[in-house]
Amino acid sequence: MFAKALFNWLCTSPLLTKPGAVIGLLLMLFVTFFNPFGLRESSEQSTETWLLRMFAPSYPAQAQADVVVVLIDDQALARMQASWPLRYNEQARLLRQLLSYQPKSVFVDVLFTQRRYDGGSTVSLQRVLSSADEQGIPLILADYRDAEGRSQMLTELRALARTAQVNWSGFGERYPLLLVPGESDSRTPALQMYQQGCVDEACALEPFAEPLLVRWGYWSDGRMSRFVDLSGCGVRGQRSNAMQLLSMLGTDSVRSQRDANAVERPQPCPYTRTLYANQLRDPRVAEVLRGKHVLLGAHIRGIPDLVMSPVQGQLPGVYWHAMALDNLLTQGREYWRSAPEVISGVSISDALEMGLVLVAGLVALWIPAKPITHKGRLLRWMSHYRFWFIALSLCAIGASVVLALWWHIAPLDWLGLILVIGLFYAYLGEPRLAAWWEQRIGKLNKKGDAGCVKPY
């Protein structure tokens, strides 16, 4: 009796009567959990990049005036009548000019790993480093370390200055704040500058153990037009954040190869305040540099040191450190980060994505072959695929917003979820759509309003 009842149940079960829904559910769960060929990872990265671009116009400007990049580029070198790499005494002069404006901290994103025998003595550079220490200005030099963790910086410079490692691996698109958990010597440039002069609880390392998801700002600071050319830049106040967001949404929605560059780089100017090395001779820059965090970097033609911003496109690598510092100054310990794991290898975002996929599949197994026409309005709505597509899409978007804005966690892949669930439901709902279309054509033919006939 039991075997017969089980057989009858299996014969009428959705597992057998809806093989398309079962196969679709299994495929979605497989892709979500196992990430074959990196499909889910690619989708997540695309969603994250797009969302960072959309959030950029509303990024708070509270720390924009506190971070300044001083850039050494080809044009600045020409105006300084110098060439790259700069001689040691030229670099010392540059740093001396910078320190004369009394910045809050300085990070030099230039490597001193190989001794230049044509660059003169490093004595003048050593004197500047000692002077910075005497003035109480934290001056941090970029440090490159080999696979064994040994510093490659010139010994005499490493002994006189603070250092911060700038080469790392294993963090993907995230900006690590601590390369070794719990070790203050492993702090990267942004965290060192953020914690300069900190005491007691402000120096705690535990809140910064997780790598930072760098948020990029959009609007350039119009007050910098006195020093740099901002023509063609999106300057704060030109239009509202909402209008800029709508403009970017419109551009992204009709994306094509023809306008890919415009989509990738809608804002040609960096968010961070920027001066050029030759401008340090101008005493007017004192108002920009005094009491600020300053990052000195280089952008030399033929020497690649670039980072990809979802807002500005390719930028000199020093801007990555600058925006990471800006994030810390703006958000403190509540900076955006990857979702924590609930079990080994499965994060909160992964669990939410798999839960939504599972709900989508179970709903597909439940929805009847024909829409329910009685038993109440709500049940009639729930018997349609479009109801559940809209509901699950709103759930995915809502969960992503909550994770990002309240829990400060990287948004989940709601774009990928909407696409997958939409295609899944479109496939399952095709017989209903075909039946509705055939019924509609039949009515039109009876009225003589259309001459549509079946092709068979």
UniProtKB/TrEMBL annotation:
Q: Which SMART domains match?
A: CHASE2 (SM01080)
Q: Is Transmembrane among the key words of this record? A: yes
Q: Does the keyword Transmembrane apply?
A: yes
Q: Where is the CHASE2 domain?
A: 40-364
Residue spans crossing the bilayer: 21-39, 387-409, 415-437
Q: What is this protein called?
A: Sensor domain CHASE2-containing protein
Q: Which Pfam families match?
A: CHASE2 (PF05226)
UniProt KW keywords: Membrane, Transmembrane, Transmembrane helix
Instruction: Report the domain of life of the source organism.
Output: Bacteria
